Amino acid sequence: MTAPNPASEPRAFLDHLYQAAVQRALPLHTTAAFLPPPPRGRTIVIGAGKAGGSMAQAVEALWPADAPLEGLVVTRYHHIPPRPEGLPERIEIVEAAHPVPDAAGLQAAERILQMVQGLTKDDLVLCLISGGGSALLTLPAEGLSLEDKQGINKALLNSGANIGEMNCVRKHLSRIKGGRLAAACAPATVVTLTISDVPGDDPSVIASGPTVPDDTTCADALAILKRYNIDVPPALRAQLESGALETPKPGDPAFAGHAVHMIATPQQSLEAAAAAARAAGMSAYILSDEMEGESREVGKVHAAIARTVARSSDSARAVALKGQPFSKPCVILSGGETTVTVRPRQPGDAKGRGGRAGEFCLGLALALQGQPGVYALAADTDGIDGMEDNAGAFVAPDTLARAVAQGMKVDRYLDRNDAYGYFEPLGDLVVTGPTHTNVNDFRALLIL
Question: Fewer CB within 10 Å: C terminus or N terminus of the chain?
Fold first, then answer.
């Protein structure tokens, strides 16, 4: 596909880079190399995540037609991709809520746990895991209700905790996460195929690692709850304090002979976007695929880098002599998973709407202050930023001026975490619909 001209079509060009990143992470393109041969016994496919539907269809398309295949995978509502014509349905795909779990996710988790009972050493379990699985595969610990789990989950989402911290707590409050699902599959062999949506690509963090060992502890979970001032029922706190909710650890025989394969990662998608930029004649630089921190603050850091590059000499040699790592025109890319701490609403304020990508764009626009020649797109690679219908947002040199003309001040929207409300009237939301994959945050700065 020919790239749009960066100078005359900056928004279309940045969208082209985003699409290159998403395409690199689609399961049908990445799964074949990691599928094991059919076993002597049964093959059970289980899994959870925003990419669950497309991962299941990839396995159905690639698995030998004469080899038995069955299973159940849960994905987010409206995230089942259209079924390719002629592809038989051998794996059931169901939907549940994300990011706050619901009864449908609870029922799916119970069915999956029941499905892997009574397997033998001749059987194979293929576990398909992608981001979002923590909410979609919910099975509260004994004595914890779904309503309790929902409340704790909402508090974690609003607290500013990073994904590792959130999933440490989730693992210890679950009967299926943190390696417990793998233990339930014994003595069958478990092969986990994972699409990473976390900084560092740690499989024990992705969807709270239901089939891999967990090196965090009940004490760690308690410390996180204390750090963010999150209340839990007294009986649950007592179980955490006693260690009764401890997860299976590295070296546990439950994981003997199991395999984990990372079939798509944030870095690979950033590299695909960089290659697309270079094919269009632009220099491209990847800052990192592991960026964390408050979205608005990460936006300010990106703005500082962009301003420095935009104000530098056009001479690459002059830039090099000044010690600057980037020369314009160029594209600067980054990934990872930032966080949003939800601020208390002021009297009369509407509820803020938005997610990490939108809040990044608010912080970026505020810090850029209309810097000429700098454009940006930030979007979640699953196509959904937070709980709205947009993937992210677009920022241009005239963003602040157009907003002021409509009576909107960017700092007021930041105060109430309302990126959606800011970018929607400007026509600068990025709306893609579900992409059927998830390698988390994608950010691209175009500096002309």
Answer: N
Radius of gyration (C-alpha) of the chain in whole angstroms: 23
| Position 344, amino acid | P
CATH code for position 204: 3.40.50.10180
Query: Domains in the chain: how many in total?
Result: 2
Question: Can you give the residue range of the structural domain that contains 310?
Answer: 266-447
Band (2; pLDDT cuts 50, 70, 90):
confident
- Could you tell me the CATH number of the domain that includes residue 294? 3.40.1480.10
Q: Is residue 167 part of a domain?
A: yes
**Whether residue 55 is found in the same domain as residue 192:** yes
What does DSSP assign to residue 387? T
Look at residue 219 and give its three-state secondary structure. helix
d(CA 434, CA 318): 44
Q: What percent of the chain has pLDDT over 90?
A: 85
Assign 316 a pLDDT band (cuts: 50, 70, 90): low
Contact 357, 391 (CB under 8 A): yes
- Residue 401, pLDDT score: 97
Per-residue model confidence as pLDDT tens digits over 8-58: 999 999 999 999 999 999 999 899 999 999 999 999 999 999 999 999 999
* Residue 290, domain member (yes or no): yes
- What would the two tokens of residue 128 be? 């398909």
What are the angstrom distances between the C-alpha of 142 and each of 227, 256, 324? 24, 27, 56
Encoded tokens for 10: 């900056």
Domain boundary among the residues 208, 241, 264 is at 264
Residue 362 makes CB contacts below 8 A (sequence gap 6+) with 296, 299, 354, 410, 413, 414, 419, 422
Residues 237 and 326 in one domain: no
- 213 and 149 Cβ atoms separated by less than 8 Å: no
pLDDT at 321: 47
With tokens 């619901």, the residue in question is: 102
Q: HSE (CB half, 13 Å, CA atoms) of 12?
A: 10
**How many other CB atoms are found less than 10 A from the CB of residue 5?**
12
CA 254 to chain centroid, in Å, comes to 28
- Kindly report, residue by residue over 144-190, the tens digit of the pLDDT: 999 999 999 889 988 888 889 999 999 999 999 999 999 999 999 99
Instruction: Pull the structure tokens for residue 110.
Output: 């119970």
**pTM of the complete model:** 0.91
Q: Give the number of residues written for the chain.
A: 448
